[in-house]
Known about the structure:
By secondary structure, the protein is of the alpha/beta class. It is 37% helix and 19% strand.
Amino acid sequence: MNKYPKIGIRPTIDGRQGGIRESLEEKTMNLAKAVADLISSNLRNGDGSPVECVISDTTIGRVAEAAACAAKFEREGVGSTITVTSCWCYGSETMDMNPWPKAVWGFNGTERPGAVYLAAVLAAHSQKGLPAFGIYGHDVQDLQDNTIPEDVAEKILRFARSAQAVATMRGKSYLSMGSVCMGIAGSIVSTDFFEDYLGMRCESIDLTEFIRRMELGIYDHEEYAKAMAWTEKYCKPREAADRNRPEKAKTREEKDQDWEFVVKMTLIARDLMTGNSKLREMGFQEEALGHNAIAGGFQGQRQWTDFYPNGDFTEALMNTSFDWNGIREAYVLATENDACNGIAMLFGHLLTNRGQQFSDVRTYWSPEAVRRVTGKELTGIAKNGIIHLINSGATTLDATGQATDANGNPEMKQPWDLTQEDVEKCLANTNWCPANRDYFRGGGFSSNFLTKGGMPVTMSRLNLVKGLGPVLQIAEGWTAELDPEVHRTLDERTDPTWPTTWFVPRLMPERDAFKDVYSVMNNWGANHGALTYGHIGKDLITLASMLRIPVCMHNIADVDVFRPSAWNAFGMDKEGSDYRACSTYGPLYKK
């Protein structure tokens, strides 16, 4: 699971020897080295390691050198490529013929026609049905200048970030723990989608596997003792008052047993996804393997939660960037086995390396409705209305917003930037509410917190449409801080035992789906959404185009849309060209 793909850098060159090629060798290779350094200095894999680049052993002037480069990249585990050049090259002889994500940077200089090669080879990619991203700097550079302009660097990094996500997913699994939850369509897992679009396989286990492992002791008992000690220190003291009716409330003894149960659930869910070598030492060879899952979902309701404690604690802790073992990369575990939302979470996680928030897109509150219910006005960024994001206490604790940047602003950090102080503040601002036993008859504990306002965030969702296939929705915006009385009144109208995030999307009056906050809610394609820290809509659009998934709703400026150059041939309207190109090329892994 920790063997990450690499990005191949292909320095192409004019193959004519006797004066031309020799004069360009150093320049071309220096550009390749600059691109590799840019990527490795700015992008990290989920474990914090720099994204590794592999440069061709030689510049590529003819097809034999292109073939040698391809062979090296296959040995090295390359999953995408960037071709760089400062001059004219023989396009069809030097181009990358692999079907993986690819980009070409043609140096904008006048001494040698790098831009001419860029145009020619992009035409070749389009003619051969191998879409490539074209990168062309806005301003002319001098031939001896090996720096990467800011606009070029931004596109290289956006391509690399998305391409690395595509390559990291390939060959991994989505693990369904249980099956369809309460008729939610997103939990009807489409194996065709995972295989054809993402290059992933779908694995599944019956939820009785949790009980089998608990009863037979198939978990790390030393880690369980450590996990319980941590839970006793940080979670049980934050247990909130029981809001259940007296006849439904569990006894203290039963609640203590539930704590033990949900901690074991968390250990087992993780082991099911990624395996655990400790189980091999205990004699459980098969269980030690795991399912090679980069993402998963827990069915929960109702087959499980009508009888056993719910999965809220497990889902919350796994989606968080820390647990009893310290600070670590967050897992991706979708509530209610909503695989469509789980994939949106996975996209956000791979692009940012941050914990992802799973929520119901529960309620649009208009300013008028808030005034009627609370007697108060919405103010600040919330003045035009808000969307209440809330679900059954199963979202990342990073979403408390209690971690802060150098200026004291709330942030959901990458794990290598988290401090123990951040961790303890997130835990100290999370309550654990005895589960609402009208919903969860088996009990358990739901996390409860209020997300701090002022964080830039992006909400996304993947939907499957019969006859069309997958589509992606994107809404950039911010978390909002409400008057405490307004929050309390609105929160009490739903389930106050769950975590709340007040979300305000960025409006774009010229787009119907973003003309007001109501329209965003009204056009959202499902009951769930994945929330990611930061404004990453541009990256999501680029990633979706690599996977041939059209974007049906977004509030990103057209100038920031970066897709393969072939998309330009499918019409002048960007939304329509996206649909037509994705339909023409089809899923990335379609056989």
